[in-house]
Predict the structure.
Amino acid sequence: MPAIVIVGAQWGDEGKGKATDHLGSRVDYVVKFNGGNNAGHTVVIGDEKYALHLLPSGILTPGCTPVIGNGVVVDLEVLFREIDGLEARGTDTSRLKVSSNAHVIADYNRTLDKVAERFLGSRKIGTTGRGIGPTYADKMNRIGIRIQDLFDEKILTQKVEGALELKGQVLTKVYNRRAPSVDQTVEELLAHADRLAPYVCDTTLLLGQALDRGETVLLEAGQATLLDVDHGTYPFVTSSSATAGGACTGSGIPPTRIDQVIAIVKAYTTRVGEGPFPTELHDESGDFLRNTGFEFGTTTGRPRRCGWYDAVIARYAARVNGVTDFVLTKLDVLTGLEEIPVCVAYDVDGERYEEMPANQSAFHHAVPIYEYFPGWSEDISGARTLEDLPANARAYVEALEGMSGARMSVVGVGPEREQAVVLHPLR
């Protein structure tokens, strides 16, 4: 059996949590392979809504083993707060596994993230201030703290001392902030060690053996393609690899074990934070999408920037990730619109671009070229087959499939688990 990758095809918030949960009953392991608690998944089960930030969506599926992979950065306080919240609601979290090689967010990295963003002023990136970026920087600078270090106090202390030799100077002399002491940081991290220990294992070995046994592993990305540190709208990106390639490095599963890449794409487009956004709307249409689609960040509560569907970035996501199937979400949000624009290309200084411009400045100045599709007024939340959809809604879905670079296999028509039109079974 294969490993399956789920990624976001836009700037995040496409509904990966729902898609992962939808597949969860058919898979044995769900792995989060990148990011931290800087993004969230919202999953609706019946009358219950769950906001997940650090835990994989599979935590809500009985019998499924959720895994935090080596590519994730972990805020231990957030992890246990989220576990406690789920346990209080009757969810069993004992199956959770955490990679011993995942990196830990220390107090000084949260502080650095916040003060550095303020220092940038008008050049700010739009981070969540949760220490994600500085922790990944420590990882690449080889001064990071890993989960396994919490079980050897001597090594942990040495690593914190090494990190604070530099970071203490930066905080005090550049940002005029008091740096935490070594003892303070070590004490904060060690406070979680005993509770953490039962969850920790070699997740690369765990997942490899699971695949050898014929079990199915689902790899879910945090953030999305256009936020990938290599392939996104740099520098307005996250600090990790959010594309299908990142699934391999962030989990330890080789690319030869992956045979399906599912990309989640919203029936319109949103993003949070700074950076270019060609189809962004600053009028009543943007307000309609935001309010009707409840477009406010799961983690931050920030209102999301909203715009029309962008087929150029969908094609880009299909190419970069090797997408086999798209899941189109939130089609129901468009109900009631008389006309629905779709961006099919860009105009940059009079030149037409059918694909993503290679130059950042060109993308920043891209003006969307729209095709217009008739809308529908019928309630589609009960649709379960393509024939259940109004003719104009069917035409819209078919048009997006034709211009997006991969087949539309599932269409979301509401927030609940079962509110989906399945055109092609995902597995």
Remarks:
- Residues 265-422 form a domain with the Adenylosuccinate Synthetase; Chain A, domain 3 fold (CATH 3.90.170.10).
- The first strand starts at residue 3 and ends at 8.
- The chain has a mean pLDDT of 91.
- The CA atoms of residues 48 and 59 lie 14 Å apart.
